[in-house]
Write a structure and sequence with these properties.
Strand content: 15-25%
Pfam family, one: EPSP_synthase
Number of helices: 15
Helix content: 25-40%
CATH architecture of the largest domain: Alpha-beta prism
Number of domains: 2
CATH superfamily of the largest domain: Enolpyruvate transferase domain
Bound molecules: shikimate-3-phosphate
Number of strands: 27
Keywords: Amino-acid biosynthesis, Aromatic amino acid biosynthesis, Cytoplasm, Transferase
Largest sheet: 5 strands, mixed
Family: Belongs to the EPSP synthase family.
Distance between the termini: 16 Å
Protein name: 3-phosphoshikimate 1-carboxyvinyltransferase
EC number: 2.5.1.19
CATH topology of the largest domain: UDP-n-acetylglucosamine1-carboxyvinyl-transferase, Chain
Mean pLDDT: 90
């Protein structure tokens, strides 16, 4: 049955790190001989973009392989609150239907982006073009994260945005209108900044261009032509012309998330005797820095690019969202240390937590630099990694923009804290598989922000894992969102 998504989100309970939902403790014991095939959730970054562009274009668009976690559900709830009809006939299929962005209505209540920076920043770009006022808020973690990086250029385009700390932090109140295109030289390589401005630029007068210091994920640029909008790229500058009509495709097929795959691949690499296959993963070059680094570390990892016949969608190696897709296979391996920095960082940004875990088992000192952006993620990931991995016996030095991880160091099970950060929860769980004794991860249920099946999948591969809180994770899987009433039974909510 399709369920409409309510426009009213109740206030969410905050866990230890300010993240929605129950904390949950996962207990992980040492593993070996992990074996099997894991299907990862649809790509979270691509899911947000597909939903927003479909809602902006209008018509009826089916999103196949939509990400099942809480973050992607936050985007759907916000769109529903703007008057877009959103239904979810299956956990991984979403139908977006509406009149297009000109028919969006002023939301009756603040839009809740939950834990999702992509929801807040990209939606801010679109809302900046609307003639009504809207408030965007999120959980405690999101309200601590920097928003000035999108607010400042959107103001230069003509949007009125107010917020805490002069508009540097959420909640943000935006009232948009007739924007004019600008050029923005972004000091950070951020796909969220780039995408927010390009989305605003679609409805601005003239050209909007963004230059970034290194190439961040380019899903927005790849998807816009699918919606009828040409994108011009010149090295690190990307531009759109405003005022082009958006044309929605009937269907968007979303590949598996390489950032979710990274944790299972790492588990296979670390646990003796293991072999794990992750099929149908998006292997966009701006997302697979992690695979390149794994290879340089000596990991036995293979990528089988899908040919036309092998693609379930029949769309060939480059799928309908302009994204290449592959099957990934990883086996237990001896690792050596590497140095990681520069332009590689934006291409493995979300994989640094799991890379640090791998580095504890690599011969030599792994040096990660140019990664200060990690300090403004769901938590300060550099500090969190240094402190939590040390609890497991790892030797880690924290630097202003990175980490030194000395290996190989035997890990020993201990209690550690996910700090409300889904990627910390999953990275620590994989560390626990490689540690002696039992590792208890407090607040592990937040893995459902991006991968509600994470702990179930570890068990399927043969790992001995209890928790974190199966009831909460099951509810997330069933509805595609947190079990907090965000999805109402059909007919009871006004989308
Ligand atoms: C994302 C971009 C990255 C990444 C985040 C998702 C996106 O953030 O860390 O998980 O979907 O655009 P930044 O743009 O802040 O670097």
């Amino acid at each position: 049955m399709s369920e409409p998504i309510s426009s009213s989100l109740p206030t969410r309970a905050s866990g230890p790190g300010g993240v929605a939902g129950p904390g949950g403790v996962a207990r992980v014991r040492p593993a070996r001989d992990l074996a099997g095939t894991v299907r990862v959730p649809g790509d979270k970054s691509i899911s947000h973009r597909a939903a927003m562009l479909a809602a902006a274009a209008g018509g009826r668009v089916t999103l196949e392989g939509y990400a099942p976690g809480r973050d992607a559900a936050s985007t759907l709830a916000c769109l529903a609150a703007l008057g877009v009809a959103v239904t979810r006939p299956a956990a991984d299929r979403v139908v977006v239907e509406g009149p297009g962005i000109d028919g969006w209505q002023a939301p009756a209540a603040p839009l809740d982006a939950g834990n999702s920076g992509t929801t807040m920043r990209l939606l801010l770009g679109l809302l900046a073009t609307r003639p009504f006022a809207a408030t965007l808020t999120g959980d405690a973690s999101l309200c601590r994260r920097p928003m000035g990086r999108v607010v400042e250029p959107l103001r230069r385009m003509g949007a009125q945005i107010e917020g805490r700390d002069g508009g540097r932090r959420a909640p943000l109140r935006v009232r948009g209108g007739a924007l004019r295109g600008i050029h923005h030289d972004s000091p950070v390589a951020s796909a969220q900044v780039k995408s927010a401005l390009l989305l605003a630029g679609l409805f601005a007068e003239g050209r909007t261009s963004v230059r970034e210091p290194a190439l961040s994920r380019d899903h927005t640029e790849r998807m816009l032509p699918l919606f009828g909008v040409p994108v011009r790229r010149d090295d690190l500058t990307v531009a759109v012309e405003g005022g082009r009509p958006l044309r929605a495709p009937a269907r968007v097929s979303i590949p598996g998330d390489p950032s979710a795959a990274a944790f299972y691949l790492a588990a296979a690499v670390l646990c003796p005797g293991s072999r794990v296959v992750v099929p149908g993963v998006g292997v966009n070059p701006t997302r697979i820095g992690f695979l390149e680094v794994l290879e340089a570390m000596g990991a036995r990892i293979r990528m089988r690019i899908r040919d036309e016949a092998a693609s379930p969608a029949g769309d060939g190696p480059t799928g309908p969202v302009g994204e290449p897709v592959a099957d990934l296979i990883a086996e237990a391996s001896d690792l050596r240390a590497v140095a990681v920095g520069g332009e590689l960082i934006p291409r493995l940004l979300d994989e640094i937590p799991i890379l640090a875990v791998l580095a504890t088992q690599a011969r030599g000192t792994t040096r990660i630099r140019d990664a200060a952006e990690l300090r403004v993620k769901e938590t300060d990931r550099l500090r969190a990694l240094a402190e939590e991995l040390r609890r497991l016996g790892a030797r880690v030095d924290e630097h202003p923009d990175g980490l030194d991880v000395h290996g190989p160091t035997p890990l020993r099970g201990a209690a550690c804290d996910a700090r409300g950060d889904h990627r910390m929860a999953m990275a620590l769980a994989v560390a626990g598989l490689a540690a002696d004794g039992e590792t208890a991860i407090v607040g592990a249920a937040c893995a459902a922000v991006s991968d509600p099946d994470f702990f179930v999948n570890l068990r399927r591969l043969g790992a001995a894992v209890d928790g974190p809180d199966d009831a909460a994770a099951d509810a997330v899987r069933a509805t595609g969102t947190a079990a907090d009433g965000a999805i109402q039974p059909e007919g009871s909510a006004s989308p």
